[in-house]
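Retry 2 of 3 after timeout on previous attempt. Resubmitting structure tokens to design endpoint.
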């Protein structure tokens, strides 16, 4: 799949890049995407919810009245879960919601997400962006030139660039990440995928090594 390379002014550079079919041309597997997104969201959960059982709430441990002869139900102490202020039955406890997903499954899910974006023509390629200093207004201008200012966009870089990351972090609907740190959730959560020319080269090199 051939895509034109744009400059920071949103104009065509006259160059094109070929998106590797191994990553951008496969038949998307929606179930694998579901599993990868589910694992990511599960690992983000804190799992710190906690309630007190009848052994932990405040209250005396004396029996409220004798077992028999009152005509009423038998009762234990005031910490009984049936009373106001009593303990909670089967409430949440601190836990880890994360679960394991095989590396090959995660990779195929990521490639499926990339292929979804390629099939729907939601991939934009831009030449390398170099900034001498963090400048939000300058980066916002680049995004506007690329007609992405009103779109939820994932911008992938080949390497970490402090100036670019700082410039983009306060712009709504723009998320910046490094190619090797991206995941299926981020790709599917964005409406448009913005890649630098060097990122496409990394995909091509990965395909050659494989």
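Retry 2 succeeded. Sequence:
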């Amino acid at each position: 799949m051939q895509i034109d390379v744009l400059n920071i002014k949103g104009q065509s550079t006259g160059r094109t890049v070929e998106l590797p079919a191994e990553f951008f041309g496969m038949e998307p597997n929606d179930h694998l995407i579901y599993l990868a997104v589910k694992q990511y969201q599960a690992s983000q959960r804190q799992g710190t919810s906690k309630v007190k059982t009848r052994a932990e709430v405040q209250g005396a441990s004396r029996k409220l009245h004798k077992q028999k002869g009152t005509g009423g139900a038998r009762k234990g102490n005031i910490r009984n879960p049936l009373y106001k202020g009593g303990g909670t039955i089967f409430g949440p406890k601190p836990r880890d919601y994360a679960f394991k997903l095989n590396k090959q499954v995660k990779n195929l899910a990521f490639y499926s997400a990339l292929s979804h974006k390629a099939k729907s023509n939601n991939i934009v390629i831009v030449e390398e962006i170099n900034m001498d200093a963090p400048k939000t207004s300058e980066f916002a201008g680049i995004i506007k030139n690329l007609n992405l200012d009103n779109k939820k966009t994932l911008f992938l870089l080949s390497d970490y660039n402090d100036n670019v990351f700082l410039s983009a972090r306060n712009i709504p609907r723009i998320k910046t990440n490094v190619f090797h740190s991206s995941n299926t959730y981020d790709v599917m959560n964005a409406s448009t995928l913005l890649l630098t020319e060097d990122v496409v080269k990394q995909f091509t090199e990965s395909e050659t090594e494989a």
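Attempt log closed. The chain is about 35% helix and 15% strand.
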